[in-house]
Amino acid sequence: MSASEDNKQRNREIAANEAERQATSAVRVSSWAIGLAVIVAIIVVAIVWAWMKR
C-alpha cells in the first residue's frame, strides 16, 4: 500500500471510532435527560396533588 492509501485507511478508522464515541455520548446524555424529566414530572405531580388535597 502507498502512504496515501495507508493514511486514508487510518482516517476511516479514526472516523469510525469517533462516530462510535459520539453515539455512546448521545445515549448517555439522553439517559440523563430522561431521568431528569421523570424527576421533574414527579415533583410537579406531587405539588399539584398536594395543592388539590388542601
Radius of gyration: 23 Å
What is the count of DSSP helices, taking H or I runs of 4+ residues?
A: 1
Number of DSSP strand runs:
0
Distance between the termini: 78 Å
Poorly predicted spans: none
Amount of beta strand: under 5%
Mean pLDDT: 91
Count the domains. Answer: 1
Helix content: over 70%
Q: Based on helices, strands and strand pairing, what is the structural class?
A: mainly alpha
Shape type: rod-shaped
Largest sheet data = none
Order of helices and strands: H
Labels describing this entry:
54 residues, mainly alpha, 1 helix, 0% strand, rod-shaped
Description of the structure:
- The protein has 54 residues and is mainly alpha-helical.
- Helices cover 94% and strands 0% of the residues.
- It contains 1 helix and no strands.
- The protein has one helix spanning 3-53.
- It starts with a helix and ends with a helix.
- The model has no long low-confidence stretch (mean pLDDT 91).
Q: How is this fold's topology laid out?
A:
Elements: H1 3-53
Short summary:
The chain is 94% helix and 0% strand. It is an all-alpha fold and 54 residues long.
